[in-house]
Amino acid sequence: MTTAREIMHPGAECVGEFETLADAARIMKDRGVGALPICGENQKLLGILTDRDIVLKCVAEGLDPTKIKAVDLAVGRPMVIEEDEDAEQVLRVMEQHLVRRLPVINHPDHKLVGMISEADIARHMPQERVAEFVTTICAEESPQ
């Protein structure tokens, strides 16, 4: 059985809830990632911030990314998966909730230990399952 721990990208770095979107964009650039978990006090996961969020919800709206805080874009409750969950369960959660990135937490501390992205899925899962996953995510996406 392949687990979330085996397919995740370890060491996910959070952007603090009160850091600006400009700060988050710099972290994304430096790390070569397109998304960051938003963490609050005691590393509590508050949401996920994507480069697309910064562009569409800040820049395209004429807002100043040096003034908008990461927490301002933390909407809803983030979906997570525990590191010892089966990789097939990872795919089911991502498909059910139409998410392209999934934070991985440990048990029992519930601390962020990594992230799973579409690229991680493509690298670690059988090609047929990857095709099914991509078809599900893309077919169910609603226009934004």
Automatic annotation (TrEMBL):
Keywords from the UniProt entry: CBS domain, Repeat
Gene3D superfamilies, A to Z: CBS-domain
Keyword Cytoplasm among record annotations: no
Start and end residues of each CBS domain: 8-65, 74-132
Family matches, as InterPro entries: CBS_dom (IPR000644), CBS_dom_sf (IPR046342), CBS_domain-containing (IPR051462)
Stated name of the protein: Hypoxic response protein Hrp1
